[in-house]
Amino acid sequence: MSGDGEGPRESRRISTHAVCTAIRDDIVSGAFPPGSRLIEEILARRYGVSRVPVREALRTLASEGFVTTRRHAGACVAEPTEREAADLLDIRALLEPLGAAKAAQRRSEAHLKVLRGLVRLGQERARAGRCAELRQLGDWFDETLAQASGSPSVAGLLTQLRRKIAWVYAPGPVVRPLETWEACGALVDAVARGDVERARELAAVRAGRSPGEFLLRRTGGDRVHPPKQPVNTAGVRS
Q1: Is 45 helix (H, G, I), strand (E, B) or coil?
Q2: Average pLDDT over residues 32-43
Q3: Disordered: where is this region (predicted)?
Q4: Cα separation values, 111 from 46, 108, 124, 229, Å
Q5: Which H/E stretch holds residue 76?
Q6: CA angle, 123 as apex, 121 and 127 as ends, to 5°?
Q7: Please, which of 42, 97, 148, 189 could form a disulfide with 107 given CB 3.0 to 4.6 Å?
Q8: How far, in Å, CA of 16 to CA of 25, rounded?
Q9: For 95-101, what is the mean pLDDT?
Q10: Can you tell me whether residue 74 is helix, strand or coil?
Q11: Listed residue (109, 173, 194, 174) closest to 144, CA to CA
């Protein structure tokens, strides 16, 4: 009996998670600009699901700060102020050094292998002038370093923070890419040695880049895009 009852609940949980990820990705990408209304019925058609997982996904996104509820308008994409956007960079400057320090204490050999591989690829791409590929490598590096902290709480906060920064800021041009990846290599070396303070220091320098390197995105109009292909609720990546 218990097995029969778990199926619908598990399916609903996965569906809600998938829809939440899809809506969040569309918000971050700008498909839903700040201030856009998020109408449950239209979103359900867009992602090929019922309104129930959409409603639950909107609640989750509201708790994350991507969605707000307006009187007489319902759910809308949040509109961060310039001050709130600047706060994200300040939070990053505090949180990333903490994550690096914990990684120096808790990292596994598997984490180190991936981090070193990413540094090697980053340096190769930088030398070859393939800067368009470096941003995604940098994202993978940050994600792996966060996972190496051994703290689901810290890793989760860093993931959410990176999403919000990608949402409110358009990254500027890559500056001194080879130096950037050499600094990443030095950080990985400190983590590998278990040098907590050096890892914290290097991460602080890396996270303390000037806010001028980020371009604040402008807010958009009030539209909801037409339906697209249904979400693959078994394969959406968070």
Answers
A1: helix
A2: 94
A3: 216-238
A4: 38, 5, 20, 36
A5: strand 74-77
A6: 120
A7: 148
A8: 14
A9: 97
A10: strand
A11: 109
